[in-house]
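User: I'm putting together notes for a lab meeting next week and I want to include a structural view of one of the chains we've been expressing. I don't have a solved structure, so I'd like a prediction I can at least talk through. The sequence is below, exactly as it appears in our construct file.
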Amino acid sequence: MRVISGKAKGRRLKAPDNGAVRPTSDKLKGAIFNILFYNLDDLKVLDLFAGSGGLGIEALSRGAEKAIFVDRNRKSIDCVSENLQNTDLRDCAEVFCMDYRRALKYFSGHGYAFDLVFLDPPYHEIDWNELLSCPEWRDLLENESVLVAEHDSTLILEAPAGFETLDNRKYGDSALTIFEWKQ
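Assistant: Thanks for the context. Below is the predicted structure for the 183-residue chain, given as structure tokens.
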């Protein structure tokens, strides 16, 4: 696993050794950023279910202003912090050890807003309808904010209220569904 492009290009990323993390492959990460295709400069990014932090770190490397990393697993959070340090991107990041429900409520109540959100939870441990329908998205997303969901390829995600599906692609056992906030 490595950073594909930008100021940290080529830097290796570690994966947590907790056995619960399935890091996004370089191929899939490349596909995500090719689909997004736009300039990431000055964007605020949320990497929910961060694992190794690979998606948020890639966004920072490509010019995102700030990235927030959230994972409920302490080993994952330690790994994210180490990867941020090793890529010299620590100064434009915040790292939180908490579950996603608590994180979304916290961010909503503290004035956070995101332009780009990565969702890469453990495939079979998440209720996607519950996650995508969280009322906090109203406070956390600007019009045209993008949400990138990586999920099991057998699952078809429907856009909940407030979102529009922009793209859906399969890559082996994984799939990407990209939503845009339209409120």
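A couple of points you could mention at the meeting. Residues 66 and 92 are 5 Å apart (CA to CA). The chain has one domain: 26-181.

User: Perfect, that's what I needed.
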